[in-house]
Predict the 3D structure of the following.
Amino acid sequence: MTQNSQNTQQNARTTAGVVIVGGGQAGLQAAASLRDGGFTGPVTIVAEEAGQPYQRPPLSKDYLAVSEDGSTPSPLPLRGPAFFAEQDITLLSGTAATAVDREAKTVTLADGTVLPYGSLVFATGARNRELPTPGIELPGIHGLRTLQDAEQLGAALDTARDVVVVGAGFIGLEFAAAALARGARVTVLEFAPRPMGRALTPLLGDWFADAHRQRGLDLRLGEGIASFEAGDDGRVGFAISTTGGRYPADLVVAGVGVQPNDQLAAAAGLETANGIVVDAALRTADPDVYAIGDCANFPSERAGGPFRLESVQNATDHARHVAAVILGEDAPYRALPWFWSTQGPYRLQMANIVRADDETVVVGDPDPANPKFSVFCFRDGVLAAVESVNHPGDHLSARKILAAGIQITREEALAEGFSLQAAFKERS
Ligand SMILES: Cc1cc2nc3c(=O)[nH]c(=O)nc-3n(C[C@H](O)[C@H](O)[C@H](O)COP(=O)(O)OP(=O)(O)OC[C@H]3O[C@@H](n4cnc5c(N)ncnc54)[C@H](O)[C@@H]3O)c2cc1C
């Protein structure tokens, strides 16, 4: 293709504009980054949820707490109210995209509107995985993904006495810690032998199991959910586990993972496999269609293959990258994954993805009463990932070191007086 025809195509894409399907973390950042990068064409966000787009992480943490004056916190918006007008970004909220015609390059919305696009970005996120458990339809059993879910749960915690959480993943444990702080008795049922087993090193998973139990959480590992039984009032009354345990439950939260929202892309003929399949530029097989955030399955050098991540970092870094690609850049996506989770008094932060066979060493003080430590993860004798509990200094330095590709050997890292902060200063 000649330079002239490339320019003509780029101009046509700009004139038709960018349509972003999904008004969450990734969608809003993509719109903002397009404007930051100088994109002058129309930018439209189609958002199924009504109202102002908001941040999800507080929903399972601060949003469930009641302040000393008895008031409940407000949702945190992703952008201020003036943002959309100032940036000339059209937000169509409370309306879903229902079809994509890639030949005609249009998106059809639930209200019949047809939007043309030059570039289309799927930022459709994920939805809670549904439990196929008998009794799941009983009132009092909830998921936790949206503001509406969190509002209902916050209100339910005013009166709940016996809470059962199904799944000891991040959201399940965050909610469990919040429910404990609100005075409920809390049982967590987890089929696997460790909490957060897919994401943490076994060492840190075991530490969290112990720490949560010491704070009063009844954490049942190796015990899944078998069924729910109604109480006398017709609402959920008991959770029955796979090992026959029968736990009182006037409130249940199921946190058993999510499924990517990739149906619209699949219906448009795009490849999906645990998410919308994209290349290293976050582009689908259609050169004008991209996918970012929770819904995207992308090739990850760091994970060693196709990968889908559910995190704010992934959503925002994907969004920045896709905006740059739409604006003409051509580099592969390589951002360092990082993550945080707040579970009661424990702030967990992770830099890079851990692997099951990483060698792990605890550095710092892991006493659950007042912990401040990191787990250094070594791969082939070199620092490859760091998990930190209540140690943001280590976390931030680890992110900088790993993102910059600075090699720190096991011997260096475990030498007397070593600190990640100092190592970064010396080596950068
Ligand atoms: C309770 C909770 C706590 C969390 N805590 C943390 C945390 O502590 N740290 C962290 O890093 N991450 C956390 N996460 C994960 C993080 O919030 C997500 O990874 C992030 O929001 C993903 O951004 P996204 O834009 O890909 O998806 P989302 O933010 O989910 O946005 C996708 C949006 O697309 C909309 N949509 C879907 N289909 C359509 C359609 N057809 N038309 C129009 N709109 C559509 C959806 O309604 C949704 O609003 C948490 C998530 C939850 C639910």
Remarks:
- The first helix runs from residue 3 to 16.
